[in-house]
Specification:
Blueprint: H1 2-25, H2 27-36, H3 42-65, H4 69-92
Helix pairs in contact: 1-3, 2-3, 3-4
Length: 97
């Protein structure tokens, strides 16, 4: 069973590092994408869009390395819950993302 948790941790870590890299390449697009969900005021959406790639990269790296694993797992779960909530809100409000 340990191999399954390690595999899940590695897959999630790679996913987070990969998405962080894509967002870091075009930070302006990341800011626009966060703003498109219309959940945050524009200034907050700007800062979330700017800081999110770094947070995702740090959480992904922690999952991959096993460093602070419990905190990294909680942070990954929090990021996932926030993303799920934002997507659900956008669908409910009929936003075309």
């Amino acid at each position: 069973m340990r191999w399954a948790t390690v595999a899940a941790r590695v897959i999630l870590g790679l996913l987070l590092v990969g998405t962080a890299g894509l967002k870091a390449v075009d930070a302006g697009e990341a800011v626009l994408t966060v703003g498109a969900y219309q959940v945050l005021p524009p200034e907050a959406a700007f800062w979330v869009g700017v800081l999110l790639p770094g947070v995702e990269a740090a959480v992904g790296a922690a999952l991959l390395s096993g460093y602070l694993l419990r905190g990294a797992g909680l942070a990954a779960a929090g990021l996932g819950a926030i993303f799920f909530g934002a997507v659900a809100s956008a669908i409910y409000r009929g936003l075309d993302l």
